Amino acid sequence: MNRIESFEALRRANPRRGADFHEAVDAAAAEVSRRIATATTADAPQSRLRRPHRRLIGLTAGVALAAAAAVAVFLTVGSSGVTPGVEPAGAAAMKKAVKLSAASAERSGTVTVHMTQDGQVWAHKVVRWNGDDMEITDNSRGGPSSGLPLVVVNGMMYGHDPDHEGWVEVGPVSSIDPGSGTTPTDILAAVREDVGGKTLRRIVRAMTAGGVTTTRQSDGSAVYRGTVPAGQIARRTGFKEGETIRVFPFGYVAHDAAADPATRLDTAVTVGGDGVIREIAVTWGTWTYTVTYRQLGSTPPVVAPANAKTIREMRRLPQPG
Amino acid sequence: MNEGERERRRRFDALFEAYGADIVAYCIWRAGSASDAQDAVADVFLTAWRRLDDVPGGDAARVWLYATARRMLANQRRSTRRRAALAERLAHAVPAQKSSSDPEQYIVREALRRLGPLDREVLLLSELEGLSPAEIASVLRCPRVTARGRLHRARRRFRSAFEELAAREHGGRHRRAALETHAASVTHAPGGGS
User: Are the beta carbons of A261 and A89 closer than 8 angstroms?
Assistant: First the structure.
């Protein structure tokens, strides 16, 4: 039993995860509406606030029906615009989810990036991290690791040698050019930023400005939908063949309409019943770009492959063919 | 309803939509029963409705609601304590959840019970509500440094209590399994049991 397990157990006991939590919220919403309906009537002729009756046992059927109608009027889920004084509903919930997710992602997490065009898989990458250790599996077309993970444990990189079907100790992370954007350290920093950092805050801010709609799902999660300018999601990273390249989080080039920073892309952020972000899905034209988060804060440690050979040892092995 | 009232209702609607579930979760953990929790939530939002102009915008609204909920629950506890039958139960004021046969949930609740009320409060505000030490300080109306120190201590104590209880539970399970194995061997041994 370690430190992480005790706090994970505490989070698992969160009442938000209870099967009847949403019923409790609905019941509370109905009670709030009833109290306010009563209080509004009771307060009307008076200049000073007065406590309402704690229980509404005396409600007539007509008042009860009116209160039920008030629930629908007051607590409509969805279509929240910008309201002065109070943040739009979806925005506040998303901001909170960003905070929670970022805190969890600092420890560990697993993220799957999936990109499709016309229904065909364009990119698929899984990044798993725990502390500074990580494992990246890239199943993208022409991806560098051909479905086999690159593992970084205690600053040492391990790759898979397809010729000898074994693990190779590639070398220390520090041997890769720092600042090239491709070192595991860079990738890990980008992952943390994308999971709960600046990227997500930019997305949430942009969604808020355009209006957010909320859909509650039966599993307790909520989906917040809005549009975000492509430039807020895909960052400009340079030029290629005379054109600006914009890259989505996790390193995928933004194609077609997404290359134009002004294009508003349909964006959906799914927040689980525990308040942590589950998924960000962006769509434009025939493209989809989806980032799915799992086990934020509870991803098991990444383990160095057993019996990994050094490159020097690999050179001594007979070459195939 | 005039435009001003409609606007006011829209603001309240957004407030509940944004934070209603948070306040429900907060009250469920702390109230003596589900109906007490529902009462507390209704009181909190009724207060918010009446004082909507005082409710701050942004994330501060959530902190304001937690602080209000905390006061409401304290009032509720004070009045409920007068009811002798419930005095003992409320003296602990531990998360009011249904009893569970899940050993992990039992250990969590028991470990929380071993913390002082304020330590428990900061831990739950941090771990379940995701509040920063600065926000916790606002809810509890204490200096940030106090909230931070208390959180550090609460985490340490919770972990220690949890580990001790988990080890005990684990040992108990082993003993039970050993006893069951022993009983089975006696039952199935030739001439043993009937």
Answer: no
Number of separate helices (H) and strands (E) present in chain B: 8, 0
Instruction: Identify the pLDDT of residue A283.
Output: 93
* Contact assignment for B20 to A9 by CB distance below 8 Å: no
How close A227 comes to chain B (CA, Å)? Answer: 19
Structure tokens at B24: 């429900």
Within 13 A of A43's CA, how many CA atoms are on the CB side?
16
Hey, which residues 86-145 in chain B have their CB within 8 Å of chain A?
95, 97, 104-105, 107-109, 111-112, 123, 127-128, 130, 132
The token duo for B170 is 């684990």
CA angle (B73 as vertex; B69, B78 as ends), nearest 5: 150
CB distance A293 to A254 below 8 Å = no
**Environment class of residue A215 by beta-carbon count within 10 Å: exposed (0-12), middle (13-18) or buried (19+)?**
middle
CA distance A83 to chain B (A): 6
Q: Is B12 on the interface with A (CB under 8 A)?
A: yes
3-class secondary structure, B180 = helix
Question: How far is C-alpha A56 from the geometric centre of its chain's CA atoms?
Answer: 42
pLDDT value of residue A317? 62
Answer for the pair B151, B142: CB distance below 8 angstroms, yes or no: no
The answer to whether the CB atoms of A28 and B41 lie below 8 A apart is yes
0.90 surpassed by pTM: no
Which two structure tokens, joined as six digits, stand for A197?
């950092």
Q: A86–B25: do the CB atoms touch at under 8 Å?
A: no
Cβ distance A15 to B167 less than 8 Å, yes or no, reads: no
Taking CA–CA distances from A276, the nearest residue in chain B reads: B130
Q: Tens of pLDDT along chain B (194 residues)?
A: 677 778 888 888 888 888 888 899 999 888 867 778 888 899 999 999 988 988 998 778 999 999 999 988 888 777 655 544 444 444 443 444 444 557 788 889 889 988 888 899 999 999 888 888 889 999 998 888 888 999 999 999 999 999 998 888 766 665 555 555 555 544 443 333 33
For A9, the closest of B16, B61, B108 (CB atoms) is B108
Question: Is the separation of the CB atoms in A173 and A156 below 8 Å?
Answer: yes
Nearest CA in chain B to A3: B159
Beta-strand relationship, A309-310 and A166-172: parallel
For chain A (length 321 residues), average pLDDT per consecutive 10?
74 80 80 76 39 30 32 32 45 79 83 89 87 83 63 85 74 62 66 71 78 86 89 70 70 81 89 87 92 88 85 63 49
- Nearest 5°: phi and psi at B106? -65, -45
- Measured CA to CA, the distance from residue B124 to residue B114 in angstroms comes to 14
- Nearest CB neighbour to A9, from listed B10, B34, B104: B104
